[in-house]
Amino acid sequence: MSFDKKSAVVSIENETNNNYIIPVDLTNLKAFFNFETCAYFSEYDSSYNPLALTLIVIDANSGEKIEAKRGTAYMEDNFAEKYIKEISRCGVIDNTYVNWSKTQEINDESKAKINYYLVRNLVFLKPKQKINFRVLIDLKNVSTESLYVFDWYNLDESKRYNLQLQFDVQNCFYDFLTKKQRETFSDYKLFTGKIESNILQCGITE
After folding, report:
1. SS (H, E, C) the chain
2. With contact defined as beta carbons under 8 Å apart, do 143 and 174 qualify?
């Protein structure tokens, strides 16, 4: 991972001789919270991206991971305009989930929503294949997907901090694939385990 304080270029490489599937959202980041579990993934909401890489902020002296804070967005001058756009977007998303549940033969609407998000974020890697992508980094609003809440890091300006990206791929993620989808992906192994980037000793204070 390379970093310029506003974004990071991330590389994921399949160093094996097998085809692999990795469920990972390449478009955004999420903040570090201790409470994330498989149960949390099962409560997926479109305003949050559980498959995104986790932006870890590390105290350079103690090595401690800093847990993020969650706040409610304040009412900006153009909040009403943003709210109307969000409501319109939700209507489109709901129709997408309805159509998806029909084509994938998923009767439970909440499971169809998770399945849609999961399948759309499956990365297929051939042996020795490498992908590169860029993600924006904002410590004051780690994930910019939600209109109503934001996650941020409360850092001490007198301390030095390092950055790392991590992602823990758990077996429970694949529980939301249908039997037919699993058969379609049978030529690929389903990756489980932890993905960690190099630690960037950037000495950030904000």
Report:
1. CEECCCEEEEEEECCCCCCEEEECEEEEEEECCCCCCHHHHHCCCCCCCCCEEEEEEEECCCCCECCCEEEECCCCCCHHHHHHHHHHHHHHHHHHHHHHHHHCCCCCHHHHHHHHHHHHCEEEECCCCEEEEEEECCCCCCCCCCCCEEEECCCCCCCCEEEEEEEEECHHHHHHCCHHHHHHCCCCEECCEEEECCCEEEEECC
2. no
Residue 124: phi and psi, rounded to 5, are -100, 120
Angle between helices 79-103 and 109-120 (to 10 degrees): 100
Nearest CA among 120, 189, 143, 148 for reference residue 36 = 143
The amino acid that residue 139 corresponds to is: L
The one-digit pLDDT tens for each residue of the chain (206 residues) are 666 668 889 999 999 999 999 999 998 899 998 876 665 677 676 656 889 999 999 999 999 999 999 877 554 555 445 544 544 444 445 788 889 999 999 998 889 989 999 999 999 999 999 999 999 898 988 976 655 668 889 999 889 999 999 999 989 899 999 999 999 999 999 999 998 998 887 655 55
Q: Cα–Cα distance between 35 and 195 in angstroms, integer?
A: 19
Domain ranges of the chain: 2-74+123-204
Whether the Cβ atoms of residue 204 and residue 164 lie closer than 8 Å to each other: no
Would you state the structure tokens that stand for residue 59, as one six-digit string? 């105290």
